[in-house]
Amino acid sequence: MPEMGQEGLARNRERYDQAFAVLDGVREKVVALLHSITQPQADRRPTEDEWALGEIADHLAITEGAYVAVVAHLAANAPPHEFDYRDVVKNRPFRIEDTWDVSVTGRLATPPDLLPTPGKSLAQLVRGLQEARAHSRRILAPFRDQDLSAKFFVHPRLGTMTLYERMAQLAYHELKHLKQMERTLARLPEARM
């Protein structure tokens, strides 16, 4: 890594910390929702084709592990400035901050390795989310001083994004599923009693 001044170092740390603050803000809401429901509510699918609340939470933990592993790998190995950021933004199919909204992005098929396991207890689900976040912090900590806006991830559908944007996109992914959880909970018979 080239020599970096104190100002650049402070800016990188601030951006890194902001990325985790956004991730943590959404995660707190997911965990609060899990603490507000019963195990039967966590296990019940609103329809055969839709995930139960517990499955959505499990998917979030699995997805975080996969997303962050790629970010860490790219932070360690990708060449900096591989893309011109102005071109990246100009060629994007939609804004990163809109990726939570399926009316903008459409529905994306879930890759098989990110599919949840049904029937986990609420305690297992909360622990899985906590462990995923702790693991994310651990594997990304060596890159806190690095300028992650100089390295890129290419998503086959969402387009090219910086590694900071990939972290933000993980938060938007979680927000999308938090909204799904809220809609699902409102449709469960127990919620309408």
Brief synopsis:
This protein has 193 residues and is mainly alpha-helical.
Description:
It is a single chain. This protein is mostly helical and 193 residues long. It has a single domain (6-192), classed as dinb family like domain (Four Helix Bundle (Hemerythrin (Met), subunit A), Up-down Bundle). It is built from seven helices and two strands. It has a two-stranded antiparallel sheet with strand order 1-2. The chain is globular and about 55 Å long. It starts with 5 loop residues before the first helix and ends in a 6-residue tail after the last helix. The model has no long low-confidence stretch (mean pLDDT 94).
- CATH top level assignment: Mainly Alpha
How many domains? The number is 1
Distance between the termini: 59 Å
* Series of secondary-structure elements, N-terminal to C-terminal: HHHHHHEEH
**Count of β-strands:** 2
Task: Write a concise keyword list for the protein shown above.
193 residues; two-stranded antiparallel ribbon; 4% strand
Question: What's the arrangement of secondary structure elements?
Answer:
Elements: H1 6-35, H2 39-43, H3 53-77, H4 85-90, H5 102-105, H6 122-140, E1 152-155, E2 159-162, H7 163-187
Antiparallel strand pairs: 1-2
Helix pairs in contact: 1-6, 1-7, 3-6, 3-7
